[in-house]
Amino acid sequence: MSARRCSTLSSDAAPSQDPQDPQDPQDRGHGHGPGDPCAGPDRAGLWSVDEHLADILATVRPLEPIELQLLDAQGCVLVEDVTVPAALPPFDNSSMDGYAVRVADVAGATEEFPAVLTVVGDVAAGADGLPEVGPGQAARIMTGAPLPPGAEAVVPVEWTDGGAGEGAATGMRAASSAPEGAAGEVRVHRAAEAGAHVRRAGSDVGAGELALAAGTVLGPPQIGLLAAIGRGTVRVRPRPRVVVLSTGSELVQPGEELGPGRIHDSNSFALAAAARDAGALAYRVGAVADDAESLRAAIEDQLIRADLLVTTGGVSVGAYDVVKEALTADGQVDFRKLAMQPGKPQGFGAIGAEQIPLLALPGNPVSSYVSFELFVRPAIRALMGLADLHRPVVRATLKADAPLSSPAGRRQYLRGAYDAESGTVTPVGGAGSHLIAALAHADCLLVVPEDRTAAGPGEELDVVLLG
User: Fold this and answer.
1) DSSP letters of 124-153?
2) What is the 3-state secondary structure (H, E, C) of 55-109?
3) Residue 84 near residue 208 (C-beta atoms within 8 A)
4) Burial class of residue 32 in the structure, from the number of CB atoms within 10 Å of its CB (0-12 exposed, 13-18 middle, 19+ buried)
5) The pTM is what?
6) Cα–chain-centroid distance for residue 438?
7) Euclidean distance between CA atoms 366 and 373, whole angstroms
8) SS3 annotation, 403-441
9) Interatomic CA distance for residues 154 and 432, integer angstroms
10) In 3D, which of 31, 29, 27 has the Cα closest to residue 46?
């Protein structure tokens, strides 16, 4: 853990409430007092966004590498350079269905005066015992088949009569229904240069060349290359296992009927999907009621399959903020206030014998999602061993009907729609941390820095791209 994290936490310290902070009550948090040695340098006892993130990333370490089968390694980060053991392709082969020929035999060939060649056999992909092509001869050859000895080029079947003695062919007759196509004569209507329609051995990659460098994320093309060079397994950092757990006695699973005062659990679904999007294997746990013992038991059950735990809700100052109650006593999780909106209350620590990182996020939907993007996503990518941990940030011109207000001393994240062509960003929805419908229509976060209380139309802002 970070050297500045508390070993114990005070449970009776009164929270400081900023009268300029318009956040919802559930979005307020209990943090360290101004004189607390664990507090960041902010005079009000608030941690900055950057300090909180740095504390997380100082604790999270990349997962240990393991050897995985190719398909199991999809989405993982390669931890070793992979070199090519043998040239790819390993032999000269045809890139077309047609006829393997000698260049001199088809020189000057036209439709009016075709070159007439004797067909000495078929060469199919995977063929062994290749026929030799001598002067005045040709071999019928299929795409991917090895170039037979004596042949110097391939003429596509469309440049020939296909052995039918008629006009230009549109294709070959199936070998099973017309075996005579591998014999007789073929008329070639066009000349071909040496190497025409031939894929040379090593033209893709040569033996000993670097196929993939350590640090590469293995997607479908990379998996295909590894298979092509004969690798059945590969050494990677595994995708982190992220367990997402919502808290709240008011939460009902989607598809179930709502009772009085109940709402559907959306956070665990959104965050589990976000964890998958970040590259993790996500496990969503059904909502836990507002009971500290139940939450402790649920977390204990999940530790066996977690590289990272994410909770949402129960981190503020209410009488039923169960995450704080359950995890404060042993001092393993530090609950703090951040100079940001939304997402002011946050918790972070490492729990269990294996010291599994746990990030406790606020319960309001927008607060939890913004917190995920800023803190959990980088942690996941750090576990994966990626060098690039963060979403891309661009500068964009604010397109709005009126200035946007922002609380003094807080970094505000607003939902927005980014237009890359015009370089503008438009706010989507209001600033409320419960407005999940607006979040669903946003593709970026507008950032109003701590030293600003407003941003007007036409001004440039940082924009975090979410897509």
Assistant:
1) -TT--SPPP--TTEEEEE-TTPBPPTT--E
2) HHHHHCCCCCCEEEECHHHCCCEECCCEECCCCECCCCEECCCEEEECHHHHCCC
3) yes
4) buried
5) 0.79
6) 24
7) 11
8) CEECCCCCEEEEEEEEECCCCEEEECCCCCCCCHHHHHC
9) 68
10) 31
* Torsion 235-237-239-243 (CA) sign: positive
Phi, then psi, of 375 in degrees rounded to 5? -120, -45
Place of tokens 């997380």: 56
Picking from 241, 209, 256, the residue whose alpha carbon sits closest to that of residue 380 is 241
Instruction: Identify whether the C-beta of residue 462 lies closer than 8 Å to the C-beta of residue 391.
Output: no
Q: Which residue has the tokens 């890139």?
A: 95
pLDDT single digits (tens) 357-378: 999 999 899 999 999 999 999 9
What confidence tens digit (pLDDT) does each residue in 4-44 have? Answer: 333 332 333 333 333 334 344 334 333 333 334 344 444 45
Residue 397's H or E segment, with its range, is strand 393-398
User: What six digits make up the tokens of 154?
Assistant: 């391939």
Closest CA to 332 of 57, 54, 4, 8: 8
Q: How far apart are CA 148 and CA 128, in angstroms?
A: 10
d(CA 212, CA 268): 36
